[in-house]
């Protein structure tokens, strides 16, 4: 780990000189996964010209190699420099929801540079934050990423242990960050739909979780104004239709499905009871 810290101590401008060389090697010399990238771009953007797709491919490799330097720099980057390079717009949206006592699901994608997004969020948000992550097979790089991601108070939750962790802390108001674009394993595939001209599989856990526990969902988008600088913006993607009894009471005229439940209920249970309480009315 000491070796990584020595490299990370170099100015980001110097590290970018290294990634400039890596870009040339990856794109022009080695052609690292270039056929896969070009094939995906042709499938996703059939309406674009070959020159346009080539520009997108080059920009992708630039972002890919730059992300190596930026992520490594996060190992030692100061809070002041991180705030200069990362802006979070509308972070008050998340804090307001958590202040109301809610658990909030935050969805985002693997857009460069998502690691700066995670650390930047910890500088702007007052809310406790759990980040669900996939463990890295290499113990060395797993330890490196753990040190980077937890520098400013983020709590990491392994994906395979998330369900148990959520149930244990389900009443604790906080933000839970999930990657919305990861591919499920073959055994986990439940949902498919056309996406960018291809049938694509998605995790459906976030939707199920939000519906079952009535959780508001926010989504984070990214804009890169210049090299090494990012602007992330949060927007409310979905919220529960009915969260409290008063929400139902205020819309009684719109609630169309009613059922009187006391007819066949044994005395002494809920409904008609020995205490003389009135029967319940339940929607079915």
Task: Please tell me about this protein's structure.
This protein has 284 residues and is α/β, with parallel strands linked by helices. It is 42% helix and 19% strand. Helix 8 links the parallel strand 3 and strand 4. Helix 2 runs antiparallel to helix 4. The radius of gyration is 24 Å and the shape is globular.
Low-confidence stretches: 259-284
> What is the tally of beta strands?
9
Major sheet strand order: 1-9-8-2-5-3-4
- Note the gap between the termini: 59 Å
Q: How can the largest sheet be summarized?
A: 7 strands, mixed
Number of helices: 11
Multimerization state: single chain
Compact description:
With 284 residues, the protein is α/β, with parallel strands linked by helices. It has helices spanning 2-8, 12-29, 34-44, 50-73, 79-85, 91-99, 114-124, 139-149, 162-168, 205-213, 245-249, and strands spanning 86-89, 103-108, 129-133, 155-158, 174-179, 191-195, 198-202, 217-226, 229-238.
Describe the secondary-structure layout:
Blueprint (H helix, E strand, L loop, with lengths): L1 H7 L3 H18 L4 H11 L5 H24 L5 H7 E4 L1 H9 L3 E6 L5 H11 L4 E5 L5 H11 L5 E4 L3 H7 L5 E6 L11 E5 L2 E5 L2 H9 L3 E10 L2 E10 L6 H5 L35
Parallel strand pairs: 1-9, 2-5, 2-8, 3-4, 3-5
Antiparallel strand pairs: 6-7, 8-9
Helix pairs in contact: 2-4, 3-4
InterPro entries: LipA_acyltrans
Subcellular location: Cell inner membrane
GO molecular function: acyltransferase activity
């Amino acid at each position: 780990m000491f070796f990584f810290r020595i490299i990370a101590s170099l100015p980001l401008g110097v590290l970018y000189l290294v990634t400039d060389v890596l870009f040339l090697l990856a794109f022009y010399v080695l052609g690292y996964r270039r056929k896969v990238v070009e094939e995906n771009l042709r499938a996703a953007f059939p309406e674009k010209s070959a020159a346009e797709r080539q520009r997108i491919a080059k920009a992708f490799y630039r972002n890919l190699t730059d992300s190596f330097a930026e992520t490594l720099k996060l190992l030692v980057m100061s809070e002041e420099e991180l705030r200069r390079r990362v802006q979070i717009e509308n972070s008050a949206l998340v804090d307001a929801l958590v202040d109301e006592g809610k658990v909030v699901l935050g969805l985002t994608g693997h857009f460069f540079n998502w690691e700066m997004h995670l650390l930047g969020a910890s500088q702007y948000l007052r809310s406790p934050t759990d980040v669900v992550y996939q463990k890295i097979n290499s113990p060395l790089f797993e330890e490196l990423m753990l040190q980077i991601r937890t520098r400013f108070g983020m709590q990491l939750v392994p994906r395979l242990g998330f369900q148990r962790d959520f149930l244990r802390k389900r009443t604790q108001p906080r933000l839970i960050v999930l990657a919305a674009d990861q591919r499920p394993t073959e055994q986990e595939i439940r949902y498919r739909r056309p996406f960018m001209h291809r049938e694509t599989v998605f995790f459906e856990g976030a939707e199920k979780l939000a519906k079952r526990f009535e959780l508001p969902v926010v989504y984070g988008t990214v804009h890169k104004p210049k090299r090494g600088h990012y602007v992330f913006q949060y927007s409310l993607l979905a919220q529960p239709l009915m969260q409290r009894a008063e929400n139902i009471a205020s819309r009684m005229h719109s609630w169309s499905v009613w059922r009187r439940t006391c007819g066949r209920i044994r005395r002494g249970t809920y409904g008609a009871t020995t205490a003389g309480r009135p029967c319940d009315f339940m929607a079915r």
